[in-house]
Amino acid sequence: MPDNVQWLAAAPICALIGVTWHMLYKQVGVYAALLIYGSKKTPVQKILVLEEDFKVSIDDAMRRLGQLLQIPNDKLKLVASNYDETFYEEYLSSKRSVLVFDELSEELEYKVSSKRSLKALYDKMSSNNTALVMPLFGQGKSVTHLLVSPHKSNNHMFSNEEISALQTLLTRVQSTIEADRRIRQSRALANSIAHEMRNPLAQVQLQFEALKQHIENEASTEQLRLDIENGQASIQRGRQLINIILREVSDSSLEHEPIAMSSIHKAVDQAVSHYGFENEKIIERICLPQQSDFVAKLNETLFNFVIFNLIRNAIYYFDSYPDSQIEICTKTGHYENILIFRDTGPGIDETISHKIFDDFFSYQKSGGSGLGLGYCQRVMRSFGGRIECKSTLGEFTEFHLYFPVVPNAPKAETLRTPYFNDWRQSKRNSEHRVIDNLQPDNPTPTVLIVDDKEVQRALVEMYLKQLGVNSLQAKNGEDAVETFKTNPVDLILMDVQMPIMNGFDACQKIKELSPKTPIIALSGESGENELNMIQKLMDGRLEKPTTLSALRCVLGNWLNKSTESISSEIQKE
Question: Which of 62, 373, 395, 516 has the highest CB neighbour number within 10 Å of its CB?
Fold first, then answer.
């Protein structure tokens, strides 16, 4: 057959193959997948197609991914890099792109030189029942998230194809995951603002109620003036808190803020004297620096906010750790001077100390946004220094504020003015008196108030007094359980978010002791999970700060004695 005839015959065949090749390839792939896997798509294809699911809902996409990989229900986790995974994070960022448990066990048999580090990694994954850890890297090449998976339910190993598909999928959805993280952080910030503002608002409400009561009792002019001053102080504390939050979330540059030389003793005195303490007892637990004064270049306003943040973090645990104190001291050096802020509260786990200055990192503090210490670090850097943390869990926490030595500076004594001691002694004590002794045989009902904030407890106590009801107080869930064991209690008003033991855990323990004792949530929580837990574990819910009418209604519903007879002397609110 002539060559031209052969080409004429071959050309249509080649064209047909070229046109139908892609379709044929897909069909062959489908039939091969059906033959091998029993499905039209291979496991790799099923993984990659989840990219669109991640854009709709990351949580739902993770559940589907877990099902595809045959991971037990909800055990496949995509977690932000935090203190629980510090060990994995450091190893991944320096040595490899993925950790597979079965591969580690094989390496241990052959690599004697690195056996110690591999053994530690193997033990960590084994104790956590972890089969695979895969990192997601951010723009700065640091680990932002970890995909953590237990062993498959069928005990099969992860194939190379599955691992490659997972890496491809995570790379493709990285921007979606980051966007979702920022949204969640914004929600956490909004929740923190709402949480922090409840306390000053409750203080204002408390002072108004006290003023109203004193007016009705025809109290002296001096007492009424004191009530007004206390109310104004509460408003000032609220303003101060708003300013702190606004400072924390501001993106404005700190380097351009004006700085001036100051005695560090004077700067600390002024900062502490301007802080809005709730009562004088807190002030008495603070010891200010007395020796080794030095000159520092700083911006007074920014420095005040640093001290405010450190004080706020420390006194958060004062009720739960009644023996804790704050001690501020100084050390001088040739190149750097140090201001040391020490509190003897719960301390910080050393495994997370390197994370506490990261934005949005919060540890064991309900309602915290995690912005405060990151802001402190930025301020100290704007002064040419830095802040570091040293802590022992269960003993103390120290924040070291480093300031560069100021050359040719005047003596610190010439810049120092003692403010704090005079202010401390002239400070009025506005603390509300708490009922300590209750008669055990008193037929009047007794309500246990559980809240980590003293002002919230004081407000509810005032309302209960007006309703003729006795009250006991507890500052956290653990304290509430012990108080309940040793005192007759008819009803419990329980906060949810508290240190040491939260309200949910305390509720479960108390219900085990006395299932019929009504427990009413006294909380401002509005999250879906929290509301579901309240509905499941507790008998009702009151918004915080509560009102006299709302409290009267609860007592009328749950106590045998109606609120009208309990409080016949109260005619109106």
Answer: 373
Tokens of residue 107, six digits? 């390496």
How far apart are alpha carbons 16 and 126 in whole angstroms? 56
Please name the helix (run of DSSP H) or strand (run of DSSP E) that holds residue 378, with its range, or none: helix 372-382
Question: What does the domain layout of the chain look like in residue ranges?
Answer: 1-40, 43-172, 186-249, 260-426, 446-566
Distance, in Å, from the CA atom of 199 to the CA atom of 242, rounded to the nearest integer, reads 12
Architecture of 43-172 per CATH?
2-Layer Sandwich (3.30)
Placement of tokens 């301390």 in the chain:
347
Query: Residue 417 corresponds to which amino acid?
Result: T
Residue 432: band (very low, low, confident or very high) from pLDDT cuts 50, 70, 90: very low
Residues 6+ apart with CB under 8 A from 468: 444, 566, 567, 569
More confident residue, 338 or 378: 338
Q: Please give the average per-residue pLDDT across 418-430, as a whole number.
A: 45
DSSP state of 409: P
Tokens representing residue 166 in the block: 């997972």
Tell me what the mean pLDDT of segment 429-435 comes to: 34
Helices (H), 427-562: 454-466, 477-486, 503-513, 528-537, 548-558
Phi/psi at 342 (nearest 5 deg)? -120, 135
Range 557-567 average pLDDT: 54
pLDDT digits (tens, 9 = 90+) for 475-517: 999 999 999 999 999 999 999 988 889 999 999 999 999 999 9
Measured distance CA(500)–CA(174) in Å, rounded:
36
> How far out from the chain centre does Cα 172 lie?
29
Contact between 124 and 88 (Cβ < 8 Å): yes
CB 534 within 8 A of CB 521: yes
Distance (Å, whole) CA 266 – CA 261: 11
Instruction: Calculate what percentage of the chain has a pLDDT beyond 70.
Output: 70
- Is 267 exposed, middle or buried (CB count within 10 Å of its CB: 0-12, 13-18, 19+)? buried
pTM equals 0.50
The CATH architecture that domain 446-566 belongs to is 3-Layer(aba) Sandwich (3.40)
- Reply yes or no on domain 260-426 having CATH 3.30.750.24: no
Asked whether 518 and 540 are in contact (CB, 8 A), the reply is yes
